[in-house]
């Protein structure tokens, strides 16, 4: 079975800029192998959920930063950390890292993941490197998600399709499992935290109401709901099984701009999804056309099958009718499409 190293070697052969990206990807995935081993050993000590999450995320961040030592990376930025870390001055690349997505799951052996994005270092990146991460998502050179579960899975794109690798634990090598993945169309699955229903916009409520109404509603078919508390796990599932993921903005004071980070979650996931034939938006606008204004800027995030993401946008922009309020489900669409 083809290894990740073989794939990267063939892709980068004879091209210096690609070799730099390949070297960085090799380092990131080697770091992920070490994170997988760390997680497999369980928490270092007893503690409450948030304490265990903080410990695990901190250890994962240190492992990933150490892995980037000696790579052609000028700056590395971590989710939740206000200032990028300087690595190799003048190097051509910058790496945005979410070392441990879903960290609250770490203490219960539920799914957690690592998300990364590789960007070109601009000619002017600022004294602290922040400008390197304030680029439109379409500028990304590569992006990936590592999911730590029953097996360790890597979804990776270098802008030539999205490919799935699985870690061979015996050799510590990622091996190609699926090439040029395509998100399946027509799958009736959605992922959303329904506990936040009362805070959503009317457009998002209507979409979810239509799914809940199932074959008796305007969609004319039953839907299944998923929620794993880890967007890395959700994207791996949707790449293989289709459907849609929703983490919308809502009316709570600290959620009006969404909760996930544009540079650390939304942009790399959007590239992976679009390279697999899907779509990703903030509910209306495509995320790859958006640039963060601040390093830790938050955003709503909708991704999955292209037709489903478009339907959300149609509801949010009132291109589809929101219908009359149902006593049980709130507003519902009127027409089957």
Provide the fold topology.
Blueprint (H helix, E strand, L loop, with lengths): L3 H9 L3 H25 L8 H19 L5 E6 L6 E2 L6 E9 L10 E9 L21 E7 L3 E6 L4 E7 L4 E6 L10 E3 L10 H12 L10 E3 L4 H11 L2 E4 L12 E2 H14 L3 E3 L16 E2 L1 E4 L1 H11 L8 E2 L3 E2 L6
Parallel strand pairs: 1-3, 9-10, 9-11
Antiparallel strand pairs: 1-2, 3-4, 4-5, 5-6, 6-7, 7-8, 11-15, 12-14, 13-15, 16-17
Helix pairs in contact: 1-2, 2-3, 4-7
Short description:
Pathway: Carbohydrate biosynthesis. This protein has 337 residues and is α+β, with helices and mostly antiparallel strands.
Terminus-to-terminus distance: 43 Å
Give start-end ranges of low-pLDDT stretches: 324-337
The beta-strand count equals: 17
Strand line-up of the largest beta sheet: 2-1-3-4-5-6-7-8
Supply the number of helical segments. 7
The H-level CATH homologous superfamily of the largest domain, spelled out, is Fructose-1,6-Bisphosphatase, subunit A, domain 1
CATH class of the largest domain: Alpha Beta
CATH architecture of the largest domain: 2-Layer Sandwich
> How much helical structure, as a percent, in the residues?
25-40%
Average pLDDT works out at 94
How does the major sheet shape up? Answer: 8 strands, mixed
Tell me, what's the shape? globular
- Structural class, by secondary structure, is alpha+beta
């Amino acid at each position: 079975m083809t290894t990740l190293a073989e794939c990267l070697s063939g892709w980068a052969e004879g091209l210096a800029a690609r070799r730099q990206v390949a070297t960085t990807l090799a380092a990131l995935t080697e770091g992920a192998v070490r994170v997988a081993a760390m997680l497999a050993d369980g928490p270092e000590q007893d503690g409450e959920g948030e304490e265990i999450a903080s410990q695990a995320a901190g250890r994962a961040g240190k492992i990933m930063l150490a892995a980037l030592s000696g790579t052609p990376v000028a700056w590395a930025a971590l989710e939740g950390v206000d200032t990028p870390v300087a690595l190799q001055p003048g190097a051509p690349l910058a790496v945005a890292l979410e070392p441990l997505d879903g960290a609250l799951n770490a203490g219960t052996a539920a799914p957690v993941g690592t998300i990364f994005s590789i960007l070109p270092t601009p000619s002017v990146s600022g004294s602290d490197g922040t400008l390197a991460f304030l680029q439109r998502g379409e500028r990304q050179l590569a992006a990936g998600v590592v999911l730590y579960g029953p097996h360790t899975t890597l979804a990776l794109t270098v802008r030539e399709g999205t490919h799935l690798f699985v870690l061979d634990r015996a050799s510590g090598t990622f091996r190609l499992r699926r090439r040029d993945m395509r998100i399946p169309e027509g799958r009736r699955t959605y992922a959303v935290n329904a506990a936040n229903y009362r805070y959503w916009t009317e457009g998002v409520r209507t979409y979810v109401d239509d799914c809940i109404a199932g074959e008796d509603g305007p969609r004319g078919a039953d839907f299944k709901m998923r929620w794993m508390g880890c967007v890395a796990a959700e994207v791996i599932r949707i790449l293989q099984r289709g459907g849609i993921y929703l983490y919308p903005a809502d009316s709570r004071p600290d959620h009006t701009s969404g909760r996930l980070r544009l540079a650390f979650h939304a942009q790399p996931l959007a590239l992976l999804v679009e390279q697999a034939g899907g779509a990703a938006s903030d509910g209306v606008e495509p995320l790859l056309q958006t640039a963060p204004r601040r390093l830790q800027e938050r955003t709503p995030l909708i991704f999955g099958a292209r037709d489903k993401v478009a339907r959300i946008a149609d509801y949010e922009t009132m291109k589809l009718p929101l219908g009359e309020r149902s006593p049980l489900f709130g507003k519902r669409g009127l027409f089957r499409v």
